[in-house]
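Re-run requested by the PI after the first attempt was lost when the workstation crashed. Everything re-entered from the original request form. Ligand of interest: adenosine-5'-triphosphate.
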Amino acid sequence: MPLLDMKAVRGGYGDADILQGVSITVAEKEIVVIVGPNGAGKSTAMKAVFGLLNVRGGSIVFDGEDITGWAPNRIVQRGICYVPQVDNVFREMTVHENFEMGGFLRKGDLSAAYERVYELFPDLKAKRRNLAGDLSGGQRQMVAMGRALMLDPKLLLLDEPTAGLSPKYMEQIFQITRDVRDAGVSILLVEQHAKQALAFCDRGYVLATGANRHEGTGQALLADREVAEMFLGG
Ligand SMILES: Nc1ncnc2c1ncn2[C@@H]1O[C@H](COP(=O)(O)OP(=O)(O)OP(=O)(O)O)[C@@H](O)[C@H]1O
């Protein structure tokens, strides 16, 4: 059974259905990417998993439990964390304070959790007293990921983590994403950099106009002529 099993989900923000029956699965310790043209519903599909959408059809099962219609705070407690594309750090707080905010919902000694995030993001250890707002875009993205990881999720949702980053930082974020997966966390991410993301993920989905178009391993999607012509710029 996959860790996340989203089946034929329909829904939107208001009355109109943006998602027209989207199905996505994520297995334990798998990196799954959603790609597709602008407005395809990629971010919306991710928001559906996190309880930010009016889901009017289909189901979302996580770790054996039907979480369809649950509120985000309950979903977080169940083991899913979501890193939105923008406004994902507290800019007026230090790196460490951001991590403290991340751990806010957890009880007990968090020293192991801090150790784990600083191990994953060694660059941030030296900048732990710096304001998050003073960091580069790539480092802010790391703060956002680290903050989410403080909650020790089973599944991490990342909405365009490499948006606006240089190729160097994009590679670094991908590498860190692999490290996070190797530490036992499953990852679902939305990416604009489709070719690079498909090359790095385990499996991918191509969405268009709110529906599934293609799915397969990253390598299979990259090798698919129709995917290349229609969605990857030839
Ligand atoms: N908060 C919102 N309220 C109403 N409509 C929205 C909202 N967010 C997105 N939409 C609409 O939902 C559709 C899908 O948007 P979504 O952001 O999921 O696309 P996307 O595939 O992630 O594309 P992009 O790469 O441009 O972010 C678009 O038509 C968009 O205008």
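Saved to the shared folder this time. The longest helix spans residues 167-182.
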